[in-house]
Amino acid sequence: MLKKHPIIKWTLISIVSLLILLILFGVWFINLLPLEDMKKDLSASKIEDISYLSDNIIHKRGKILAVVTSSKTMGDSGKSTGYELTELSRAYYIFKANGFEVDVASPLGGKPPIVIDDDDMGTFDYAFLNDSIAQYKTSHTIAMNDVKAEDYQAVFFVGGKGAMFDFPENKKIQSIIRDYYQSGKVVGAVCHGPSALVNVTLDNGRHLLENKTVSSFTNKEELLLIPDAKSIFPFLLQDKLASQGARFNEGAMYLETISHDKNLVTGQNPWSTWKLAETMIKQMGYTPKHRQITGEENAGKVLLVYEKEGSEKAKELIDKLIQEKKPVDRLLIASHSTIAAMKGEIGRFFGLIGLTSYAKSKSESK
What residue ranges are annotated as transmembrane (predicted)? Predict the structure, then answer.
């Protein structure tokens, strides 16, 4: 039959060949990932097991207030939301390790909704879930109206898409930001956390954001994940910040970027949390406690070099990190290849696949 219909024959051959190639590529791609590391069970991690937290303990220097959203849905969309665990847990332990007690507040108080992304969870994040004190604080958050602003040396606004709905109009949030900023206390915010800044007016009548360099989750990051974001959110955060006079500092998608403008410190996305929290410590006049940089952070540095200087320079950095026995998270590099594919950037997709393969070969030959 197929001899009588050559077009059908060759079409079937092409489809089968393509499927075989896709399967082979998928197997090869999976083999590039750090499968052994991915199999490790970190769910039992405890703060006592993290030397950064248990060694060379710094005496108490004061208190920092972390603020999370109370919103459990994205407006009327029905999409669930909450605060991002990793954005709270990592900053929480940076502050703790540097001598600051952390209290957690939310617009409504009580137990706020939480977003846990299993793919992003690390030792610090699981330790946070197993930390009885941290869990009590996040299950019994202080209502914003009950916060005693004078008790804290800084405030940190945690991200999570819910923040877009209950941070901007909250009068107590606006009051704390205004008073802290004007008195020189540090105001920090990451990802969607900077939505807390959008309606803050200073005593001189000028908007807080006027001529301030800031970062937040970008339009590109938002719209890639939620194409209908414009109809779901009250505004796109990047647009809103810029419209109120901010100089918006946009970094590479889903990579570390922070802005430090005097006592205002803002970060673009969850991957900016480590650096943002340590920058807040610096702004308060202290040298951050030494911390071993994570494999995720090192992979982020590799990706930033790739973005700015190309593949060869990124490979040189991988060589350097491997030689210094510093971890490089190949999963993050591979994840960015997937992002490139989602954006239709085929050349970049294969470039990042090649970079993942290079990192694997170097880690195995060390």
Answer: 7-30
